[in-house]
Design goal:
The protein contains 22 helices and twelve strands. By secondary structure, it is an alpha/beta fold. α13 packs across α14 and α13 crosses α16.
């Protein structure tokens, strides 16, 4: 199932129609849909699509030779192997002299790992002939650190040659929801909280059965696709995963500041681990939206970026001993069911952020936001703050069974002065996002004032 990716396809098409050589770098986490996107883009176009694997250099060169020969001479017609990478890329340059040719090198880091001089060779051939051809060379990879080191980094041989780069992110809530449309609004958000926006994970969902059944049979059951998925992915990305696992489990358990994570993980120095996890886009560091120098802020907190990774570390890994003995239902009843709505409440803020960005850019808010994020200081916190050029909107997001009343609004309003100290003088508006609607008094107050906006979950979805 291929969902959306409209802007990504438009970007690829724009470079395809540029009439000059293109070196397009696509990268992102595993399972995020990079290969599917490129396959969709290449459909109906003249192309060589090669997926590298962890095999010796000679095997990779032979397999890529076969892929090239199939395009030039027809499938299975010629079995010759090009003797060198210079010969191989020389043939591609010749084939792209007068007609656009797409060449996709999927899992490019495997090629560089098998033959380290490849980056320098490709740089030389690009400068000598490929840059003057009609080639569209797409380098794709899941090892984010290696992609940045071998292609995007200042010291990389191919630095300065790329014509575009794109980090492919997971799907947002509205796009992910296409995988489980039969679910009602509340169950849809819980499902997104569990699975996130990674297409490979979303495809495991059976929308004809409940979320509970999907979790029991597709996540908690030994042998199911997602049971060990996070462990396998991290073992491929990290050389010594044990300490990283401890750090990520500490964050998933609610420890967000460095000191808290350090104590919970039982490690003396967690800074290198956090930095590596950030480079791999597994962990993100957030600061209050009003900070003008985020990298220097002392108020940074850490979160796991991927919803399913967060769910796995929060509920699957700690209950591994029971799950190995088939206690799926017990784990669900005692650990997951009681904590699922609290777990989902944090994702509600994430989805509200997506909603406000979308509505703002569509011109359906009082102003176009330039930044959206949380704000906190000491014991005060605001779920979301939308910053415009001269305006600000403070937002409370409540994933609760009770409607929001005026007491919640008054509490939000009381924080405005402190937020303005950090944000600078701006006109202030307020918004309340509620799973369960609003009390009559809250609706009446919003009707009397022009600076309060009410968003019910059903309207938002």
């Amino acid at each position: 199932m291929f969902v959306n990716r409209t802007s990504e396809l438009a970007l690829l098409e724009k470079h395809y129609n540029s009439n000059h050589a293109e070196l397009f770098v696509l990268y992102g986490r595993r399972r995020v849909g990079k290969t599917e996107l490129l396959a969709h883009f290449c459909g109906g176009k003249r192309h060589v699509f090669f997926v590298a694997d962890q095999v010796p250099e000679q095997t990779l060169r032979a397999n890529l030779s076969a892929a090239i020969n199939d395009v030039i001479f027809g499938a299975g017609q010629v079995s010759a192997v090009y003797n060198t990478w210079d010969d191989l890329f020389g043939v591609l340059a010749g084939q792209a002299q007068s007609e656009r040719l797409i060449v996709v090198l999927d899992e490019f880091p495997y090629l560089v790992a098998a033959y380290p001089p490849l980056g320098s060779i490709l740089q030389r051939i690009w400068d000598h002939s490929l840059k003057n051809s009609q080639i569209m060379l797409i380098l794709n990879g899941s090892y984010i650190g290696m992609m940045e080191e071998t292609i995007l980094g200042y010291q990389a041989p191919l630095y300065g040659r790329r014509t575009a780069q794109y980090l492919l992110e997971p799907l947002d809530f509205l796009d992910a929801r296409q995988f489980f449309l039969p679910y009602d609004p509340d169950e849809s958000l819980r499902t997104y909280a569990v699975y996130g926006g990674t297409p490979a994970y979303l495809q495991t969902i059976d929308p004809n059965v409940s979320l509970e059944t999907n979790i029991l049979e597709g996540i908690l059951e030994r042998g199911s696709i997602l049971y060990d998925e996070v462990r396998f992915v991290l073992q491929q990305e990290l050389r010594e995963p044990r300490n990283y696992f401890a750090v990520m489990q500490a964050i998933a358990s609610g420890n967000t500041r460095q000191k808290e994570i350090k104590l919970a993980a039982g490690l003396d120095n967690i800074a290198p681990y956090l930095e590596t996890l950030r480079e791999l886009h597994l962990v993100e560091r957030s600061v209050p939206v009003t900070e003008t120098q985020p990298h220097k802020s002392r108020r940074g907190i850490y979160r796991l970026k991927d919803n399913y990774v967060r769910f796995w570390f929060r509920f699957v890994l700690p209950n591994r001993s029971q799950l190995e003995r088939g206690a799926n239902q017990i784990v669900y009843e005692t650990a997951i069911r009681p904590g699922l709505d609290h777990f989902t409440s944090l994702i509600f803020e994430q989805v509200c952020t997506q909603y406000f960005w979308r509505k703002g850019l569509e011109g359906e808010l009082p102003f176009v936001p330039r930044k959206i994020g949380g704000w906190w200081k000491a014991n005060q916190e605001v779920d979301l703050v939308l910053l415009g050029e001269k305006q600000m909107m403070m937002v409370e997001c409540k994933w609760s069974n009770r409607p929001i009343g005026t007491n919640i609004f008054r509490n939000l309003e009381s924080k405005a002065r402190d937020v303005l100290r950090d944000a600078g003088q701006r006109a202030v508006q307020y918004a309340l996002c509620s799973r369960s609607g609003f009390t009559d008094h809250m609706v009446e107050l919003a009707g009397e004032r022009g600076d309060i906006h009410l968003y019910s979950w059903e309207d938002m979805i």
